[in-house]
Hints:
7-stranded mixed sheet; globular; 10 helices
Amino acid sequence: MTATARNNVHVKGMGEKAMLFAHGFGCDQNMWRFVAPAFEAEFKTILFDHVGAGGSDLSAYNPAKYSTLAGYADDVIELGQELGLNGSVFVGHSVSAMIGVLASIKAPGMFSRLVLVGPSARYIDDGEYKGGFSAAQISELLEFLEANHMGWSAQMAPAIMGNADRPELGEELTNSFCRTDPDIAKDFARVTFTSDNRADLSKVKSPTLILQCSEDIIASTEVGEFVHRAIPGSQLVVLDATGHCPNLSAPEAVISAMRAFV
């Protein structure tokens, strides 16, 4: 099976240069539906689902391969090679921000620019580093997910989305979480929330834009500032938006910041 078939790739747009959009945990390419179309006149836009998400080929899921973010980064590189990407723009939300970082390091030249939306290099506090969660909190979160996937989704998704005044957004994320295979969700959550990519940030060579929401329980302003300081020459834009999914809750702000960068 080709990588484009495995990852349910959809290509649109008119431009010579490509823009690849990667979704976060518990989501799929549909999360970019308010952002990607804005770039179709200037770019060839590429949307895909990580293996285990959306319309991807679930039979391709290998727990060993996807036990680290490197497995997902390898998929991005394989997609890029199959699609002939060179000097393209990578746009990654949440955990896919670090997947893009890893892919850009391993395949220099494939991505000329990175856009990282709500990135975190490590979610667990470590000495002076504040990732936002204690090791005990992450352990508790993962145990809850393993014991009750649907209950975890119903409780966590609205909190992650934020924007309590727009409950339909939290409901959409809840439904997205619930559609994910529970075993794959458990694995991906463990990989996501226990990852540590702090040492990788200084290796990034591509110009990088970091988009940070003013209030985000998953990736705080402090976390965004850490990523900004660690990636040489990166730009940090704090959006007038709350929650962890501005691609859904504040797409105009995301588009505006991206346009100024690309």
